[in-house]
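Weekly structure sync, notes
Attendees: PL (lead), two postdocs, one rotation student
Agenda item 3: pending single-chain targets
PL asked that the sequence for the first pending target be pasted directly into the notes so everyone works from the same version. It is reproduced below exactly as submitted, 481 residues in total.
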Amino acid sequence: MNILYVSPEIAPFAKTGGLADVSGALPRSIKSLGHDIRSVMPKYRSVPDMDMTRLDMAPLRISMHNGIHGAAVWQSEFSGSPVYLIENTEYFNRENFYGIGNWDYPDNLERFVFFCKAAIACCRSVGFAPDIIHCNDWQTAPMAALIRQADSEAAENIFPAPPRPKIVFSIHNMAYQGIFPEHFWPVLTLSRRYYAYDFEFYGQINLMKSAIVFSDAIHTVSPTYAHEIRTTDLGFGLQGALQARQADTFGILNGVDDDDWSPLNDPFTYGLHFSADDLSGKKHIKTRFREEYGLPDAEDKPLMGIVSRLVDQKGIDLVMGCAERILGLDTQIFILGFGEQRYHDFFEWLLSKYPDRVRLYIGFSHELAHKIEAACDMFLMPSRFEPCGLNQIYSLKYGTLPIVRHTGGLADTIQDGRNGFSFHDAHPDVLLDTVARACAVYRNDPEKWKQMMRFAMKQDFSWRHTAELYVDMYRHALSKS
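Predicted structure, written out during the meeting:
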């Protein structure tokens, strides 16, 4: 089948989080199953060249609410799968992708409506007729309504030939829905009849709601999260719309790119490697890591890692509530992340008070993330909710046993006492008890610890299996009338 994969970010071209990793790896795996899949994303200012070629064709002419806007199309071959990049200096030649700091660009609705329309026009210009359009997150949500409106009017003017392509919409995080004031409605260039039932959300425009209503299949990035978002607690106001589409909702765990995350060939681990059958390299990596960052190298002190956005969703408030008591268990913690200033301030204070037990890097470093996953004994990820999570899967591959809250993708990947440790109640005392339980196994039962490490490392979270589940979902969408 022909598939157009539409995403606001695709690694390695542009990345702010796990969506980019998924958008980079999944199309390659689907292509390996024999399907023609092509990706499209905006050409932001920061996108690296990556052997791009500007396509030799007339600029796209995109009809917006305020006139005609042009776009050029660039193409890059990424692992044999074409990636089209939409260039428009007015909308995408900016310092960041979505805003500056906590401030969103005020024209984000206009920017991403333009992107959705340009993705459709790109298909027409290159002669690609998709059977499936796979959209990701609120930035691509308008695509579903735009296609529906075009289908009701003149589908042949949108794609090289009918029938209308089926729409699959992936929800990577319900907390970000694309909500805008009602007076922005003209930007969508849709008939007003769509507003009241399909977009309206407490007097505002909700892009994600429209995609839930109009898509042929809806996808979330773990089976448990697919259930959780139909509840009041984690539906963020859209649980009713999702309950109505339960039969068309699929929960599929994200995979992991073996080429990027593997202890067998990791380029960032000091030239040292290890496997489930030979764990000795991990101990040497931990020693080198501690030497590099000036931490005492004591075998009985478990080293814990955090690689995370420092925000409430990730349970950082739970860590803050018991961090000193965790250190009181004679442990060490390395924190890598960026987020709310209050958490920056707290961890900087913690470092100043416990300089022999804490290390902190505010920001993000791909290399350091790899080193933390490889060197640490345990990985703290006590999220209040977690659509899928990737770091706990990276940790499993490196034998770094995760300590997680039982929610979303964490519940689907971590088995308490087998490949990690989990807890239910979102409370610092419960997190502390779980850390203490992990430390007890680490110190008092080293054979069980190694057994858990080996079990974790031998689990298969590759994209090969996951891609087949996506293809099954595409076939379900194609079966819809």
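Discussion points:
- The longest strand covers residues 67-78.
- The CA atoms of residues 15 and 254 lie 16 Å apart.
Action: rotation student to compare against the earlier draft before next sync.
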